Each structure stands twice: as C-alpha cells, then as structure tokens.
Amino acid sequence: MVAPFPTEWPEPDTVLVVEDDDALRESLAHSLASICRQLRTAGTVADALRECAATSPDIILLDLGLPDGDGAELLGRLRQMTDAPIIVLSGRTDEDQKVALLDAGADDFLTKPCSVAELQARIRGQFRRVQVSSAARAWSQLSVDGVEIDLLAQRVVRHGQPQRLTPTEWALLRALILHAGRPLSPRQLWDIVWAREFGDFATHVRVHITHLRRKIEPDPSMPRLIVTEPGVGYRFAGPR
Ligand code: CA
Predict the structure, then answer these.
(1) Measured distance CA(79)–CA(207) in Å, rounded
(2) Hey, is 163 helix, strand or coil?
(3) Is the pLDDT of residue 9 over 70?
C-alpha cells in the first residue's frame, strides 16, 4: 500500500512575519528559521506591504496590532496582492472578529502566546494544503499530446493505451508533481520514494525515471513532462 502522498514535503521558500513587538518578532523569526529558506520580517503596515510586494512570500504570519494602521485592513490589502496563506497572530479574538477576518482572507489563527511546535505545525499545515491543492489542480487538467494522467484516480492513458504504473512509479510521479516546477536531486527522490539509507540511489532513480517516461511521456525520447536538469536532477514541468 502506497501512501497517498510522499511523506516529505517541500518547505516554504519565504515566510513573512509581520509583528511590531521587537522581542516577539525576533522570537518568531528564530522559531521559523529552520523550516523555511528565507525569513522576512516587518514591524509596520508600510513595511509589510513593501515586503510582500518585493519577496512574494509563501506564507504570511500577521499580527493585527500594528502602530501605523489597522491589521484587519492590512489583511485585506495583502489578500489582494497574494494567494499565499495568511495566518493571523492575535491575542484573544472573539467569534465575530474571526468571521470578519476569515471573510477578509485569513486562512488560520494562532493565539499568542503559542509554542514553537504549534507555530511550525500550523505553518507546515498551511503550506501543505497549498502544495496539494495546486498539484492536484494541475494534475486533474493534465492532458498533453495524447497522454492523459489522473494522479488522484491513479490512471494513465497514453495514445489510447491504459498504462500500468508500479507503486514505486506512482510514488516517484507524486513526488515530482508535488514539487512541480522545482528540480529534485536523485538523492532527494531516493529519500522520498525509497526512504532507505543505503543503496545505489543514482542508478535506481535513473532506471525508474526511464521506465516512468516510457509510460507517461508523449515521446519518451524527448521528455517534456519529466525534464532533466543537468547536474541537478529532475523537474516536473507540468501541463502547459
Ligand atoms: Ca502588535
């Protein structure tokens, strides 16, 4: 039995923390540094808008009490700029306020103070949701030059012929799709799909990629869905 999705997930590239309390902002930044590649911070409405425009964050953590403007209004403006999940960080919030914030585009709430573990879990949870839904969306629409692929139904038809993928090939395909647009190294694919410590991963991955391409590429001799990134690995190019 293969898990529905890989157990390892991409982490957000950029997290934006909007909080005017210096000590709290530093502490949040410290807690999140290990689960994202780039951490940006802002202490005012003006900084938050500037950072959001400049860095296109994958997740925004937003304190509502800011010195130069209304946090709820900022939430609405951020929502117009980005589809990234916005987690509202607040003191006590009553139900009416919560509903208003959800209407304005908030995705989740965290009540201060919160533990590092909870903070990280919420950030990861929101990011996974985005990854799964965007991957699933891309996948459900995938029909390229005589090849139809349905990840959720586990169905591939290539030039009129249903293809049988092995559990390993499905796992490989899922991993590539979930990271669509970003290359994965053979080592990363090995860790995600095989989850073994030892072995000739380079050969394993290369052989399985070759098998998979024969089943899902319109023309396996000129791969366009699973693209080789020389010196890096493989990238799922997705439907275009
Ligand atoms: Ca504040």
Answers:
(1) 44
(2) strand
(3) no
Is residue 119 within 8 A of residue 28, CB to CB? The reply is yes
49 CA distance to ligand 1 middle (Å): 16
179 in any annotated domain: yes
Q: How many other C-beta atoms are found inside a 10 Å radius of the C-beta of residue 108?
A: 17
CATH number at 207 reads: 1.10.10.10
**28 near 57, Cβ under 8 Å?**
no
99 CA to middle of ligand 1, Å?
20
CA of 93 to the centre of ligand 1 (A): 14
Q: Are strands 38-42 and 14-18 parallel, antiparallel or unpaired?
A: parallel
Tokens of 178: 């979930």
109 Cα: distance to centroid of ligand 1 (angstroms):
15
| Mean pLDDT for the chain overall | 86
Read off the pTM: 0.58
Mean pLDDT of 12-22: 93
- CATH value at residue 126: 3.40.50.2300
110 alpha carbon – ligand 1 mean position (Å) = 13
CA of 105 to the centre of ligand 1 (A): 19
The pLDDT, as a whole number, for residue 167 is: 85
Residue 62 CA, ligand 1 centroid: distance in Å: 9
Domain coverage including residue 47: 14-136
